[in-house]
Amino acid sequence: MTFTIPTPPLFSFQECLWFLDRNYDDCLHIVTPNSVLKAIELSGEMILFEVKEAQGHLEVTMLQGHLGDEKPLLDYVKFWFDLDRDLHPFYEMLNQDQDFAFMQTKYHGLRLMGIENLFETLGWTIIGQQINLKFAYTLKRSLVEHWGKKLVYKDQPYYVFPEPAMIAALKVEDLRALKFTTRKAEYLIGVAQLFAQNQLGKSSLLALPSEEQILAELLKIRGIGKWTAHYAMMKCLRTANNIPYGDTGLYTALKNLKNLGKRATIEEIDAVYAPFEGWKSYLTIYLWRTLSDNT
Length: 295
Prior knowledge:
Blueprint: E1 2-6, H1 13-21, E2 30-32, E3 35-42, E4 45-54, E5 57-64, H2 71-81, H3 88-95, H4 103-106, H5 118-128, H6 133-147, E6 150-153, E7 156-159, H7 164-168, H8 172-176, H9 182-196, H10 202-206, H11 211-219, H12 226-237, H13 248-258, H14 266-273, H15 280-290
Antiparallel strand pairs: 1-5, 2-3, 3-4, 4-5, 6-7
């Protein structure tokens, strides 16, 4: 079964595929030159789908599994590719900054690719704390292959991120065996237990009246610092004004484009971001995108 989703203006499927690939070993999707294949669980059913681009729309093809209603799958894809967002205001802001104006052309149509599952988002950020991305992806693969559900299609396994209850039941030693540090294992199991005990959830955070209150709630959790919280808010909760202070990639991009110091101050970063109210999360993604020009 194949379904279609209209694509908005200022959308580039190839830019989105580039972001999903980036030569890292991501175990949660497979990117081909013209498509991406991904497994997810919807209403207790494991399904595999492929997304391709056609003229003016995306084609979403069910490859394995069954759905009584295609809407949850199409909503998932819309969220993943951020298809309901009009980028024109952001591009107008970029155009007003002589150092950033090139991004609207060079990375034309890049979308803030989302992670729908909050536990997966927080788990991924905990995994990635204080290590390089290559090793972070290695740890994620080990975790997912050990405790995530999978389906097999044409002899290729496709995985979903483990459920909170599965990780909540682990011992620190289980993760230490996969080369997790003790602290990282404690953080991940602790966050999983909060989800399993219904003390943390996406809907309850989104019900809070402001980004500041969401940030404050996340920062109460052991192992969740400002960088982790802002990343989760940007990628999963879709709040508009996230600046991941302390991110080395962000500092590098601002040094390259704004000639800020290696460790720019919060005040210096805030001054750069100030004209992008409502679009600071998108500016972060585009700044990270510029780092590929220097690798």
